[in-house]
Amino acid sequence: MADKTQDTTTDGGVTAENEITRPLGLPRWVSAVLPIVLLVLVLGVFAFTSPLAGVQSGEPLPDVTVTHTTLPSDETVVLHVTNNGPESVTISQVLVDEAYWDFRVEGAGGDRTLAPMESAQIVIPYHWNPGWDLEVALVLSDGATFHNTIVAPSQSPGFSLSLLGTLAVIGLFVGVIPVALGMLWFPYIKTMSDRWLHAVLIFAAGVLGFLAFDAGFEAFELAERVPGAYEGNLLVVFGIFGALLLVQAISAWREGRVAAGDSRASSGLWIAYLVAVGIGLHNLAEGLAIGSSFALGRVSLGAFLVIGFMLHNVTEGPAVVAPVARGERPSLKHFIALGVIAGAPVILGGWIGSLAYSPTIGAFFLAIGVGAILQVNWEIAQMVRDAGGRVASATNLLAFLLGLGVMYLTDLFVAL
Fold first, then answer.
1. Cβ proximity of 148 and 128 under 8 Å
2. pLDDT tens across 118-138, in order?
3. Angle at which helices 345-355 and 268-295 pack, to 10 degrees?
4. How far apart are CA 354 and CA 170, in angstroms?
5. What is the pTM of this model?
6. What are the phi and psi torsion angles at 57 (to 5°)?
7. What are the residues whose beta carbons fall under 8 Å from the beta carbon of 141, sequence distance 6 or more?
8. Closest by alpha carbon to 317, among 288, 338, 333?
């Protein structure tokens, strides 16, 4: 006879009495593990018996991606490649501007063969001229050829402590300082009427909305350079929805604390931190772009460009502090923490981009920023509604449009 037990559980505050049956008297965990064990057995039988061997024809096509190139000197070209195919491939020859050239492969176990999903660097001792495009082709042992164009090559600076210091200074000027300056509007925002405070909050949503669109377009553009084995577009989708659901889970946890009587969880400080996190994730991706541009030798950061970054990012400051404009003024340590969370990731992103550039990392971080920003905008709209405001009022709609417009105009000053 099956063994039955009574279990009382709660879900969402509702108490229910469930009858749990043990099939054949076995523990519950056995019924949970059994399908997995059977799946492993079926997969093993399929793999070792090869039931489809009689209907297969042809071989899988090779697929090799050149993710990016680095130029450590004017005598060397380094191609960073990944084998996306299901079979190992061997790089037989390399052509530079239609001429066969010597090369060596680093990071592939000491030979020229790349296993599935394996990455390596192809080092070519070739004298190139700055600004003159290079046509490079990889020829595999089976004759398959993969072409790549290096547009307007310029020397990569390479790793150095001075480079990290330079990126830290740039991060201060394009991330930390603009956000801090924007936060200085807090005393003025605090004196606004509810109507205009709601407009500032929706303006902040417009700023964040522009950042989400900007990062989303760039993420899908980078996804085209992600090795095919990593499914760049799906990686971006996963990053967006993963971050959105993660932030939503944090918000749901906060709502549970509010229901439990935690007054701190009901304050606007929570929203302010969420806004700072969303902006920080976007600024991290912005830093990745700056750092990778340095690593690839494709950046020209003059005073005009830095000014453009500052104008672009200074609007993020009011977006961070607007949620705490009502109620008790937060302590100075919270303002410092908010500024660091929102602005300092530019520095971290610059370091990561210069040391370990990868289109895969860049696309994923951009996607995470998009997902977090989308959820934060939902929180801002909910905050306005909870305060008795109407999100879709004429003033708020114009404020949202203004946020988009200001970010668009300042973005025109920023181009790597």
1. no
2. 889 999 999 998 888 999 999
3. 30
4. 13
5. 0.71
6. -145, 140
7. 89, 90, 91, 92
8. 338
